[in-house]
């Protein structure tokens, strides 16, 4: 059930009024839990059992941990259980494929049958959220949630269930406990977020996908300009797609009175790669920072260890995105980028002499290059794209000028937003005009196809 | 003026968003009013600005067979000028013939004071026709209506939409989406809901019209990918070429009806390999919906005359022919019992058919002549005047 489809509209029109009635009673969280499980079960009813299992385990582990003299052991049980689930559903095929390749290269006449498991949508997101609760509780950062209903709702809350943001217990659990219902302002704020997200997804991401899919499905048939253009457009497609999803998720949650964390903060205006990661998929970046990078030692144990920790974090982050070598390489490329630029970025020359726009363009260019690995169907395809970008001839890329114009408008908007001219965007008339134009564009000009969100595959 | 772009929650401060589009309730009301007004006014104004002259026959261009907004507009125009409307599938539309060789054209020639309008739609079948008339043919009231029934749709359970296996038929947005259930229709819940909502809002149908007319039946974004350097707004000329314009030789941008000399041996949509497995009027889904279409037209004050066939019986033999004759007799009985004027002619000469149900130009001319001497037709249509 995707936010921009009719089933969700009907689902929400039923769930929301009942929620408003029940919010102040003790049945509020229970209703949310039923709605969330229905939302997830709509995709596949068996998924309800899948989400129930880690929820039960982590709820029980937290209870045990509270009384146990060896909480570390219970923490290990929870993490092992969650990673096992993730490994089984997400990486089983990847692991068997690679073992088979290894056996074949060693000329061992044996092949392990591929499990052929489909990754349940949202699994990576809610397992990470559940793990963060256990780790935070182990660290003493939060109190144990006594109510199973509230805890299960925290793990499965439907607006953020499929693709985040990956919320922290410290932010979301107290909100579930709150008896006060959503205000009119919550509703209008949620609506504002939802409309912007819908526009990003349907009007922009799905539009750019038409060109990107065409080029990336057969990269060997295209010349350098088309490959560069498709990569540029993909950078925006994935941004519009994922941040659009997040905006809609935050909007729906906000209408119900929940404040979910900001997940994207105009990442293509970043002036360094570090800055980029503090603006892109913030809930995941901060998760890796808090639960991987810092526990590994962060930047406290010298330059070598800092880079090692950074490298490991980026590679794991790449692998989180998908069970394929292309994602691992994407992580490695970002890690290498951080190594090469971190020192330069800290120099006075870079900070003061290099114009901001140049820094932004450099970061954007690097991120675009890394996206090649993220989007390519295989390492071979990524290699074809990179070599053809530098070696193939020049041919008309049939550049969709209208799409470029839309991107430029968004880019300009973001520049203004982060400039002294932001007040122009804050004018009542401008805000109303933006909302009207987005809605009319969606109604009249938007692509008619219903495409799934890219990040649902992770 | 400043927009508060952060939200305090407990001790944490959650940034609202990374843009300024945050509206109050009052501002949302303004936005809603503007958008609702625009969604109502744009199609209305468009209908006045865009030039549409359907020609004397009113035949909708083949390329626009899925443009229900235009069909509704053509319907309104025809109803304001013509007393008699001829409604049906590609047999009435004239799939293999030009617009000056259709049944309605020949009827106009014979009875020139009656002005028969061709409101046939290529690819329509009874189940979809019911939806077409119910939602896009609301202007058809207090008129003479010649409603064509093509027995082809009852020639196999598949064409009668009864098979459990998915069958992708024409005009799926027009059929009943939820009830009565069409076994072979397997659209997603979302697609069905979308089809239902289109029936009650003009804007989505108008958008389809724009896409079909100006963007080669795709949408504007897809069109800009195919035509990257063209201005997508310049292609909107506010001019719908009439059918004759579409069918002019040399107009390669559009597909014209197939010429008679371009035929192959496979009739449209007929699974000859399966043979004919005629269904009965009691069990037929298509016949059931056809009955509802008659009922609907009558409820709207129309005088309904049903034309059955003429099916090309020359392609049938043995039990298949007997089954067809039995079916035709059932249809006639049903029409008699329900007091519906009709004409169910025998087969035209074999050379007057292009396939199992489509006559040649000469076939249409002959059919028009036969109709005009039919007593029931004369009473119901020719000799009746709404004045």
The pLDDT mean of chain B sits at 85
Strand content of chain B: 5-15%
- Reading the helices and strands of chain B in chain order gives EEHEHEHHEHEHHHEHHEHEHH
- Which H/E pattern describes the elements of chain A? HHHHHHHHHHHHHHHHHHHH
Shape of chain A: globular
How many strands appear in the DSSP assignment of chain A? 0
Report the portion of residues of chain A in β strands: under 5%
Query: Rg of chain B, please?
Result: 24 Å
Which structural class do you get from the secondary structure elements of chain A? Answer: mainly alpha
Query: Helical segment tally of chain A?
Result: 20
Which stretches of chain A are low in confidence, meaning pLDDT under 50 for 5 or more residues running? none
Class inferred from helices and paired strands of chain B: alpha/beta
Low-confidence stretches of chain B: 1-12, 249-273
Strand order, sheet with most strands of chain B: 5-4-6-8-9
Number of contiguous helices of chain B: 13
Describe this structure in words.
- The complex is a heterodimer of chains A (458) and B (387).
- Chain A is an all-alpha fold.
- Chain A is 72% helix and 0% strand.
- In chain A, α9 (184-217) packs antiparallel against α10 (224-255).
- The mean pLDDT of chain A is 89.
- Chain B has 387 residues and is an alpha/beta fold.
- Chain B has 13 helices and 9 strands.
- Chain B has a 5-stranded parallel sheet with strand order 5-4-6-8-9, sandwiched between helices. A two-stranded antiparallel ribbon of chain B has the order 1-2. A two-stranded parallel sheet of chain B has the order 3-7.
- In chain B, a hairpin with a 2-residue loop joins β1 and β2.
- In chain B, α4 crosses α12 (361-373) and α5 (126-136) packs parallel to α10.
- Chains A and B meet through α1, α8, α9, α18 and α19 of A and β2, α1, α6, α7 and α8 of B.
């Amino acid at each position: 059930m995707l936010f921009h489809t009719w089933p969700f509209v009907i689902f929400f029109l039923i769930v929301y009024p009942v929620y408003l009635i029940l919010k102040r009673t003790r049945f509020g969280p229970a209703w949310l839990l039923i709605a969330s499980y229905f939302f997830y079960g709509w995709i596949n009813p068996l998924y309800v059992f899948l989400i129930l299992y880690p929820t039960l385990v982590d709820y029980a582990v937290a209870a045990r941990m509270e009384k146990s003299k060896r909480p570390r052991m219970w923490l290990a049980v929870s993490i092992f259980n969650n990673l096992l689930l993730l490994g089984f559903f997400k990486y089983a095929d990847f692991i068997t494929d690679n073992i088979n390749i290894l056996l074949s290269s060693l000329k061992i006449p044996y092949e392990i049958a591929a499990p052929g498991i489909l990754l349940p949508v949202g699994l990576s997101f809610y397992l990470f959220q559940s793990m963060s609760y256990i780790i935070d509780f182990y660290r003493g950062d939060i109190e144990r949630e006594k109510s199973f209903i509230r805890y299960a709702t925290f793990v499965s809350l439907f607006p953020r269930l499929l693709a985040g943001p990956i919320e922290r217990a410290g932010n979301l659990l107290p909100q579930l406990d709150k008896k006060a219902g959503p205000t009119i302002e919550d509703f209008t704020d949620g609506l504002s977020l939802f409309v912007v997200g819908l526009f990003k997804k349907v009007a922009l991401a799905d539009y750019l996908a038409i060109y990107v899919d065409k080029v990336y499905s057969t990269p060997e048939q295209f010349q350098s300009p088309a490959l560069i253009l498709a990569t540029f457009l993909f950078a925006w497609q994935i941004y519009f797609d994922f941040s659009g999803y997040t905006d809609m998720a935050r909007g729906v949650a906000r209408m119900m009175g929940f404040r979910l964390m900001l997940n994207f903060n105009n990442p293509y205006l970043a002036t360094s790669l570090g800055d980029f990661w503090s603006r892109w998929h913030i809930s995941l970046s901060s998760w890796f920072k808090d639960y991987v990078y810092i526990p590994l030692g962060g930047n406290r144990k010298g330059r070598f260890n800092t880079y090692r920790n950074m490298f490991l974090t980026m590679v794991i982050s790449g692998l989180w995105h998908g069970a394929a070598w292309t994602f691992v390489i994407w992580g490695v490329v970002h890690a290498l980028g951080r190594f090469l630029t971190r020192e330069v970025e800290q120099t006075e020359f870079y900070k003061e002499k290099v114009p901001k726009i140049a820094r932004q363009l450099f970061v954007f260019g690097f991120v675009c290059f890394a996206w090649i690995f993220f989007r390519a169907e295989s390492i071979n395809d990524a290699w074809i794209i990179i070599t053809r970008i530098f070696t193939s001839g020049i041919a008309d890329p049939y550049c969709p000028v209208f799409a470029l114009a839309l991107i430029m408008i968004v880019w300009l908007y973001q520049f203004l937003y982060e400039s002294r001219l932001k007040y122009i965007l804050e004018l009542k008339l401008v805000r109303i005009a933006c909302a009207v134009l987005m809605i009319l564009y969606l109604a009249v000009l938007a692509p008619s196809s219903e495409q799934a969100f890219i990040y649902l595959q992770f | 003026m400043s927009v508060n772009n952060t939200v305090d929650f407990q001790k944490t401060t959650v940034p609202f968003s990374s843009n300024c589009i945050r509206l109050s309730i009052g501002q949302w009301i303004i936005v809603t009013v503007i958008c609702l007004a625009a969604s109502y006014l744009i199609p209305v104004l468009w209908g006045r600005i865009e030039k549409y002259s359907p020609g004397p026959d009113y035949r909708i261009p083949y390329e626009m067979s899925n443009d229900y907004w235009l069909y509704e507009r053509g319907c309104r125009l025809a109803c304001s000028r013509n007393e008699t409307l001829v409604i049906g599938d590609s047999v009435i539309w004239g799939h293999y013939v030009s617009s000056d060789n259709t049944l309605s054209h020949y009827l106009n020639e014979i009875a020139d004071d009656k002005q028969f309008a061709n409101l046939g739609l290529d690819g329509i079948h009874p189940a979809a026709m019911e939806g077409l008339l119910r939602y896009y043919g609301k202007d058809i009231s207090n008129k003479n209506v010649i409603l064509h029934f093509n027995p082809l749709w009852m020639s196999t359970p598949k064409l009668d939409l009864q098979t459990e296996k998915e069958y992708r038929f024409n005009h799926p947005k027009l059929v009943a989406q939820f009830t009565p259930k069409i076994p072979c229709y397997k659209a997603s819940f979302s697609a069905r809901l979308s089809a239902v909502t289109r029936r009650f809002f003009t804007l989505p149908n108008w958008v389809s019209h724009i896409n079909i007319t100006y963007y080669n039946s795709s949408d504007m974004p897809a069109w800009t990918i195919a035509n990257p350097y063209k201005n997508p707004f310049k292609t909107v000329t506010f001019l719908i070429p009439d059918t004759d314009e579409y069918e002019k030789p040399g107009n390669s941008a559009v597909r014209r009806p197939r010429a008679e000399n371009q035929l192959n041996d496979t009739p449209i949509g007929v699974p000859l390999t399966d043979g004919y497995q005629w269904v009965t009027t009691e069990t037929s889904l298509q016949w059931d919906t056809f009955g509802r279409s008659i009922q609907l037209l009558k409820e709207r004050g129309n005088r309904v005359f049903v034309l059955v066939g003429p099916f090309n019986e020359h392609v049938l033999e043995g039990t298949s022919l007997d089954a067809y004759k039995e079916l035709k007799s059932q249809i006639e009985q049903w029409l008699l019992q329900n007091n519906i004027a009709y004409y169910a002619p025998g087969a035209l000469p074999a050379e007057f058919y292009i396939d199992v149900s489509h006559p040649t130009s000469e076939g249409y001319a002959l059919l028009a002549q036969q109709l005009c001497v039919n007593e029931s037709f004369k009473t119901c249509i020719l000799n009746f005047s709404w004045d």
